[in-house]
Amino acid sequence: MVVMLTYVAICFIVKPTNVTLRVNETKVCKNSSISFTCKAKANPEVHSYQLHVNGVNSTDENSNGSWTKTMSHEGKYRYSCVANNSVGHEESSTVIVTVIAPVTIADMKKHHSVIEGRNLTLECVVAGSSPNVTWTHINSSKIKKGKTWNITKITIQEHGGYICEASNFCGLDRKGTYVDVECNLNTEFTFMIREKNSKLTAKLNDDNSKEFRNKDEEFKNKIKKVIPECHKHVVHKIELSMRDVDL
């Protein structure tokens, strides 16, 4: 008796499955390069892969499923890939890629001159994606967050250098300016004549001030100066100095 055995090979022909898109970076700086890799299972084998951007075929089709792209524009992009064989095609899930523009600060005025008591606005014009911006006053180390620093009734102590610094994921930029605060000679100051225990008030630039008229060296040596160094001023040949006079 002869037994005949017949083997039947069953071959399953299917369209691509398990399509995946891998990206080496999902957050990059503008003009950086990203690598994309698309993989899938299929029978017969995949003969081509396509890369889609924001739901649109980017016309980048190849047989190995690999791409390298230079990201030249900031923003968020939705990438997916499609695997094709003779049976059909299948698309991967979406991968979000964020492209960030580095921060840059526009050239600013190098020097500001303002009279004390007046207002001053320092403006930092910044370009780039979601920048963090701060101003720093070098003399006092005081920090102000934001692109604008509004200084009201500026004082002598607020003179000096100011630095604007902007930063984000891609780095930082900084620029500076210098503020010169000029004395306001219209400001009124009070002087104490200690031996008489009385107060004298006068405007430093008031040439007709009776209080300063005909005052001599003895008067100068009997007052305690309470004004900043920058207010040294000669009124009718009387120089007001920083030192305290012991009577």
TrEMBL record:
GO MF entries: cell-cell adhesion mediator activity
GO terms under biological process: axon guidance; dendrite self-avoidance; homophilic cell adhesion via plasma membrane adhesion molecules
Pfam families according to UniProt: Ig_2, Ig_3
Gene3D superfamilies registered for this protein in UniProt: Immunoglobulins
This protein's UniProt keywords: Immunoglobulin domain, Signal
Limits of the Ig-like domain: 102-182
InterPro entries per the UniProt record, alphabetical: Ig-like_dom, Ig-like_dom_sf, Ig-like_fold, Ig_sub, Ig_sub2
GO CC terms in record: axon; plasma membrane
Highest taxon, organism lineage: Eukaryota
Signal peptide feature range: 1-19
Protein name: Ig-like domain-containing protein
Database matches in PROSITE patterns: IG_LIKE
Gene source species: Pocillopora damicornis
